[in-house]
Design a protein that fits this description.
The protein has about 200 residues and is α/β, with parallel strands linked by helices. The chain contains five helices and six strands, in the order E-H-E-E-H-E-H-E-H-E-H.
């Protein structure tokens, strides 16, 4: 489901979550579609003068050590950098986060306070992991989230004791839960249309 949303350019920012080299190494149709939509959102946000923040794995709070992670994900390596084709541009920010969500152990909340921003327009991966965690954390901080569903990657879940869960099933449940309580859920087309209006 998609809804029309109002984006206040004075109080909103675009947050691109975990769109980094290591997580993009295995390309497939859904990843390509997500990246196309992220690129469209970035272009629309840049044209509208909306601040852009990339949340990427790495050392945020120095007191938080790396957790054992999937093979290949190494803080400080090129694997946790944003692909050059997406950014960041000179005036855009990369915050490093030591865990799934963009708030925990990072400078995101402080950045938003100083920038006087209270709304996240959020995209990236993965929907049922770091993106969902970020939306819930934002809600707990009395911040508003606009989740761009078709600019988020949703992966299937292999059997954990209840059977395999397809990516469509994961997306249906995750988006339904977030839309019910925590965020406005919309599409890339809606955000681009809204940001194009003056």
């Amino acid at each position: 489901m998609s809804i029309a949303v109002k984006i206040d350019r004075e109080t909103s920012l675009l947050l691109v979550h975990d769109v980094v080299n290591d997580f993009l190494a295995e390309t497939d149709e859904s990843l390509t579609a997500m990246l196309d939509n992220v690129a469209r959102l970035l272009a629309a946000a840049r044209a509208a003068g909306l601040p852009i923040v990339f949340a990427a794995p790495g050392q945020g709070d120095p007191a938080i050590a790396p957790r054992r992670a999937r093979a290949g994900l190494v803080w400080g390596s090129e694997g946790v950098d944003v692909p050059e084709l997406l950014g960041p541009l000179a005036d855009e920010v990369v915050i490093r986060k030591p865990r799934y969500g963009a708030f925990f152990g990072s400078g995101l909340a402080e950045y938003m306070r100083h920038a006087r921003r209270d709304t996240l327009v959020l995209c990236g991966l993965s929907l049922a992991g770091g993106v969902e965690t970020t939306v819930r954390d934002a809600h707990n901080r009395d911040l508003h989230s606009v989740l761009v569903a078709d600019a988020c990657l949703c992966r299937p879940i292999p059997d954990q004791g209840w059977g395999d869960v397809t990516s469509d099933e994961v997306a249906k449940v995750t988006l339904s839960l977030l839309a019910e309580r925590f965020a406005e859920v919309t599409t890339t087309e809606e955000i681009c249309r809204e940001l194009a209006t003056r």
